[in-house]
Amino acid sequence: MKNKLETISNLFEGKEIRSIWDSEKEDYYFSVVDVISALTNSKDSSDYWTTLKRRLINDEDSELPTKCRSLKLKAKDGKMRSTDTLDTKGIFNL
Fold first, then answer.
1. Which of 8, 52, 60, 65 has the fewest other C-beta atoms within 10 Å?
2. Which SS3 state, helix, strand or coil, does residue 59 take?
3. Tens-digit pLDDT profile for residues 2-47
């Protein structure tokens, strides 16, 4: 399963994308705000995600926000914090 992690890491040209392995589903979950930061170069990727998520929730055709899982990942301050994550398929949909 390392290939999925390498694929995502290579797509974002070495930018840090926090991830966690779900052994039950045999898939990685990736931090949504990290991916948004890598894609948009946004100064505040958390705010960007909050706005995007609100718009997607209002869009009846979008299932992406409901597929997010809140998992604890290590934050920049070293503490474990709840973070919206998506599996590999969800990241490609994002």
1. 60
2. coil
3. 566 666 666 677 678 898 888 898 888 999 999 999 888 788 999 9
* Cα dihedral 60, 61, 64, 70 in deg (nearest 10): 20
Which one, of 3, 31, 1, 29, lies nearest residue 16 by Cα?
A: 31
Q: What are the residue boundaries of the structural domains of the chain, listed by start? A: 2-93
Is 89 exposed, middle or buried, given 0-12, 13-18 or 19+ CB atoms closer than 10 A?
exposed
pTM: 0.82
Q: In the structure encoding, which two tokens stand for residue 30, read together?
A: 């990736």
Q: Which two tokens stand for residue 67?
A: 């597929």
What the block records as the tokens of 85 is 């994550």
